Amino acid sequence: MADDSAYHEGMRRLQDQFDCRRIADRLEQVTYTTALDENDRRFIEAASMFFLATADPAGQPDCSYKGGMPGFVRVLDASTIAWPDYDGNGQFRSLGNLLANPRVGLLFIDFQRPSRMRVNGVASVSSEDPLLATWEGAQLVVRVKVEQVFPNCARYIHRMQPLDVSPFAPRAQYEPPRPDWKDEPDFADALPARDLRPPKSV
After folding, report:
1. Which of 2, 98, 114, 108 is nearest to 54 (CA)?
2. What percent of the chain has a predicted confidence (pLDDT) above 90?
3. From CA 4, how far away is CA 96, in angstroms rounded?
4. Would you call 128 helix, strand, or coil by DSSP?
5. What sections of 37-130 are H helices per DSSP?
6. Whether 53 contacts 61, CB under 8 Å
7. What is the DSSP letter of 122?
8. Cα–Cα distance, 80 to 144 (Å, whole number)
9. What is the C-alpha separation between 109 and 118, in angstroms, rounded?
10. What is the tens place of the pLDDT at every residue in 104-157?
């Protein structure tokens, strides 16, 4: 990073072009931290979704949406958050990236009371995490050691109301429906064994 700050030369170049270096430095001084406080915990654990940014070993970026019931992301302590990985489409783009390049960025957004928070850190992925059994439907657990957390200006966040949680979001004493795409001819014969339908009798 440039001049021992959160900003590299590309950021500094644009800050200087738009006379923003002073406010950028002030934001770093006032709002950036390396630990989650109680307000951060409440914000994160109220979330039913977040955006996850990862990169492969060559630095090629990828961004995905992660959703669940409110509270599916947990703050374990001031420097650790965790969430469950649920059944997906089997590509493992995000988690596969984390196994090769553990640097990660998370973006949490509250669309009802516009606000957002960024969390950057280093992730680990485990099928043997002791928390695995505490999340209904979890197949893996991702933990992130927080290195940087800061809020972002909310002025361009569109105010939206959620209609309902996804019927596919795992929860206790509930069996999510089977996604239709698993029965499409293009995919049905390539599914993991646990998802294959028995052949229809003639």
Report:
1. 98
2. 95
3. 31
4. coil
5. 38-45, 93-100
6. yes
7. E
8. 6
9. 9
10. 999 999 999 999 999 999 999 999 999 999 999 999 999 999 999 999 999 999
Q: CA nearest 106: which of 51, 171, 57? A: 51
Which of 119, 70, 83, 123 is closest to 101 using CA atoms?
A: 123
Amino acid found at 108: F
Neighbours of 54 (CB within 10 A): 22
Fold of 34-156: Pnp Oxidase; Chain A (2.30.110)
Residue found under tokens 């800050």: 15
Question: Where exactly are the structural domains of the chain?
Answer: 34-156
Round the average pLDDT of the chain to a whole number and report it. 95
Contact 29, 5 (CB under 8 A): no
By C-alpha distance, which of 142, 138, 133 is closest to 50? Answer: 142
CA distance 101 to 80: 18
d(CA 123, CA 164): 30
